[in-house]
Amino acid sequence: MSSETTYQLRGTKQAENQEIVSFLDRVLPFPYDQRVFSWEYDHPNMIFCTVEGPNQEVLGSQGMIPHAIHSAGGIFLSAKSETSYLDQQLQGKGLFKKLYTLAVDECREKGIKHIWGFTALGPVWEKLGFQVQNECIEQYVIQLRVRDINQDQTPGLASKVKGFSKMLASLWLSSKSKRTQKRIQASYQHFERELNIREELASESQMKNLYKRIREQYPQLVHLEMDEYFMQNRIHENPFVQYRFRSVYDQDKNLQGYYVLAHQEGKHYAFLSDITAAKPEIKNWLIAKACEEARGIQEIKTLQIQGNGLNQLNREAFDCFQQFGALKYMNRVYIVSLVLDQTLNEEFNDFKNWYINGLWTEGVKQ
After folding, report:
1. Containing structural domain, residue 38
2. Do 57 and 173 share a domain, yes or no?
C-alpha cells in the first residue's frame, strides 16, 4: 500500500488533542504533557501539523510557535520552527517535506512573514529552502564554584588524576570569576546609588522604550519583541524552568536594562537567558549582579550564556563573560531562516543583525 493512501497529513489541530501529546511524550527525551503543550502552543496563530497513520495515530509532527519580531521595517509576526519529528518507519518516504510544506502554507495564511529556528541538521533545512548559518552560536561558561571531584565516577588512578586536575582548574576559574565580579562591582559602584534593581517583569511600555534607544544605535537590529504576552506566557509561566527577571531603573524610573536568569531545580548550572542594557557598562554591571545572584544559590556551579557571535550586542556580553575567565564552546548549531515576505530579505539575510535577546534559544528544558 502506498504512503499516500496509508498516511494522512493533517493541518493544525486543537491543543487538547491527546494523540499529539502522547506522540511527543514518546519521542522527546523528557516528560511531555498537556500542560507543556499548552505553554508552547497556546496562541491564536499557533500552527501544529501532523502525519497520521491508518488508525489516526500521530506519527509525525511540525509545530510553529508565533513570535513578534522587531526589525528596521517595524513589528511583524514570525514563527519559530519547533517540534519537528517523524517516526522512523516513515522516514525516506518524502513525507516530512510534504508535512513542512503544509505548515509553511498555514504560516502564509496566518500572515506570518518569517520562519526561523535552531538545529544541528542544517543541510536538511537547506533542502527545504532555508538560509543556513553555521558556527555563529557561541556559548560561554563561568565557573562559580569548585568542581566536585566525585563527579568522575570511573574507578582507577587515571580517572582520579583527571578528576583532581579538573577540580584544580575549576578552583582557579571560580576564584578568578569571584575576583572579577568584585572588581566590576567596585568599578561601577556609582550604579549602586544611581540605579535601582527590582525583582519583577518590566512593563511592555518600558521594554519598548529601552529597545527604541538601542535601535537608535543599531538601526538594522532584528530582535524579539518583548511584549506582555511573551513575557507572561513564555517566561513567567514556563512549567519547568524558573526564570528570575531583574529590571534596573534610573532615578527617573526609566528602564536601563534587565537580565533573565534561568535555573531548573536540581541542576548545577544556570543560564543567563537574556542580558540587555542601554549601555555596555550597565550590561557589565548587570552580569556581575547575575553572577552574584547565581553564586548565592548553593547548587549552581556554573553560569552559562549563548547567543549570536556575529552580533555586536551579543558580543559585548561575551567579552564581559571572558573577563570572568569563561570558557568558550562552539555549539554545532545552525541558525535557519526562511523569509516568506521578500521585502524582509535585505536585513534578514545578514545574520549579524540578529540579536539573540529574550529566549530565542529557549527550550522546554534548559
Report:
1. 3-112
2. no
3-class SS of residue 265: coil
Pairing of strands 114-119, 74-86: parallel
Question: What are the pLDDT digits (tens) for 84-132?
Answer: 998 888 888 888 999 999 999 999 999 999 999 888 888 888 889 999 8
- Torsion on CA atoms 20, 21, 24, 30, rounded to nearest 10: 170
CA 357: distance to chain centroid? 8
**8 Å CB contact between 235 and 359:** yes
Name every residue whose Cβ is closer than 8 Å to that of residue 229 and which is 6 or more positions away in sequence.
Answer: none
pTM of the model: 0.86
Q: Please indicate, yes or no, if residue 204 is contained in any of the structural domains.
A: yes
Q: Is residue 292 part of a domain?
A: yes
Give the list of residues 6+ apart from residue 285 with CB closer than 8 angstroms, or none. 184, 185, 188, 191
Residue at 355 is within a domain: no
* CATH number where 30 lies: 3.40.630.30
Instruction: Quote the strand ranges of 230-342, DSSP E.
Output: 242-249, 255-263, 269-277, 302-308, 327-330, 334-339
Residues 82 and 165 in one domain: no
Phi, psi of 350 (to 5 degrees): -100, 100
Cell of 105: 502554507
Tally the domains of the chain. Answer: 2
Reported as a single tens digit per residue, the pLDDT across 314-335 is 999 999 999 988 889 877 888 8
Identify whether residues 147 and 198 lie together within a single domain. Answer: yes
Cα-based torsion angle of the residue sequence 72, 77, 80, 83 in order, rounded to the nearest 10 degrees: -170
